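note to self — DONT lose this again. spent like an hour looking for the file last time. sequence + predicted structure for the chain T wanted, 280 res
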Amino acid sequence: MHCIYTINHFKNFERYRKRSITFDRCNMQLLSDFMTYLIQDEGQNDNTHRSKAHYSRKKNRNTISKILTNIKFFFTWCRKRYGITEVGNIADFQVPTAKYGDPITLTQEEKRRMFETDMEDENLEFIRDLFYFQCSIGARVSDFFKLKVENLMLDDGEWCIRYMPSKTKESTAIACRIPLTEKALEIVSKYKDEERHPKMPLFDFPKHAQTYNDSLKKVFQKAGLDRTVVVYNAYDEAEFKPLYELAKSKFARSNFIDTLVGKGVTDNIICTMSGHAPGS
């Protein structure tokens, strides 16, 4: 999806320039011009060069960084995969770094309140339990939703989750092994189905991450997690929002890492348990 999104922007840029983009014309200057084009809202009010299916809006720093990273990677891939040498000094082009705010974590009191609140709705209760379990293992939502029954195992007398994080499996090939807390085991027991095949999902996960995030916002609001949080958008503008409006699956991962740091766990072990690349 991101590739199609990037290609659409690059095609519109080509129409805007009124010149074909070929490999022998691809260099740092081209990417610099492309970046200026994106910053200036793709020709601003001139819509004649855009495809009818393409909708342009003001792009923040992170979006522009993602688009340029994808394009730069494409040219690098062409050089390695097909031996195309006409590409100019693309490798020297510096993509502007994305800017992200500090990770948002829950306090122990907020976690306790969320876990003890009567959700008065079976689906919200299930989403709440899923989130608490995710906080216990720190998996990215993409890896979390892929967990199978076989990923739950008894290892040296200790129940744990073992999985291979998709984002770093090619660079590190190190599996994550996370011992389960008592509350995490309670959640497993609560939704355990003895008839599930080892290859079946560990839980009846939501079909989409966005559905999960939307439900989490309701869970947070139901639990009264409404403290004001200051966040900075990609335009460096401060925004003040209640915690429940920002709720998303990424909070679970941040809480997992924050808990390990608070216990004095070393960075190397945190990277191994969370699936982070060393030094990231």
